[in-house]
Amino acid sequence: MSTVGLSGVARVTGATIFAFLVTACGGSPTVPMGERFNEPDYSYVVGPGDVMEIFVWGNEELSTSAIVRPDGKFTTRLVEDLPASGKTPTELARAIEVAYAEYVRQPVVSVIVNGFVGVPEQQVRVVGEATEPKGVPYTQHMTLLDLMIAVGGMTEFAAGNKSVLVRNSSGQQTSYGLRLDDLLRDGDISANLVLMPGDIVIISESWF
């Protein structure tokens, strides 16, 4: 799985940090039991850094690989600066067919994404006392335990049970308490939960 560098993780908004400070001082509710394992309605969309294979059926000379640039666009052998970021692979294939129609009769295009980064809204970020703080592309059925394995767990200075999940839902930001010590050190699977695209996990530092 491809990962996003620390520069992407560092773009935690001031509102997120403020929410964490409020939570750390006053405590935070946990994710309601009825929502802990609800699956989000999720379809992957292409983002900057994604590696794609573009197949043009019957025109193999036009088939190529491409990387989505930081501006969300890419260039093929026929067309320059095609927008890709924010589209599903199927939507992107249809857009390429429209662009190629000026040069090829009834083009049929397939897009396969091989290297996944995704848009920031579909990444899950971990900051604070993780062994390797970073952003991870969201995958269907991803849980908190999966994410902690991806970042190598917590440092020895972490206060796992004081950690916070920051989630945006319908434009509203909510903070929930996490029990990472219980999950990772005690094996309490009841502390696990399903993650959502865009979640931010802030692992607190122990002051003792």
Question: Can you put this structure into words, describing what you see?
Answer:
There is one protein chain. By secondary structure, the chain is of the alpha+beta class. The two termini are about 35 Å apart. The model is unreliable at about 1-25 (pLDDT under 50). Helix content is about 20%, strand content about 25%. The protein has helices at about 5-10, 15-25, 90-100, 145-150, 180-185, and strands spanning about 50-55, 65, 75, 80-85, 110-115, 125-130, 135, 165-170, 170-175, 200-205. The chain has two domains: about 5-40 and about 120-205, Outer membrane lipoprotein wza fold like; about 50-115, wza like fold (2-Layer Sandwich). The protein is elongated, with a radius of gyration of 20 Å. The strands form three sheets. Strands 7-6-10-8-9 form a five-stranded mixed β-sheet. Strand 3 (about 75) and strand 4 form a beta hairpin. It is a multi-pass membrane protein. InterPro entries: PEP-CTERM_polysacc_export, Poly_export, Poly_export_N, SLBB_dom. Keywords: Cell outer membrane, Ion transport, Lipoprotein, Membrane, Palmitate, Polysaccharide transport, Porin, Signal, Sugar transport, Transmembrane, Transmembrane beta strand, Transport.
Mean pLDDT: 86
> What percent of residues are in strands?
15-25%
Radius of gyration: 20 Å
Number of domains: 2
Structural class, from secondary structure content? alpha+beta
CATH uppermost class of the largest domain: Alpha Beta
Shape: elongated
CATH superfamily of the largest domain: Outer membrane lipoprotein wza domain like
**Percent helix range:** 10-25%
Query: Counting H and I runs of at least 4 residues, what is the number of helices?
Result: 5
What gap, in angstroms, lies between the N and C termini? 35 Å
At the third CATH level, what is the topology name of the largest domain? Outer membrane lipoprotein wza fold like
Q: For the report, how would you describe the main beta sheet?
A: 5 strands, mixed
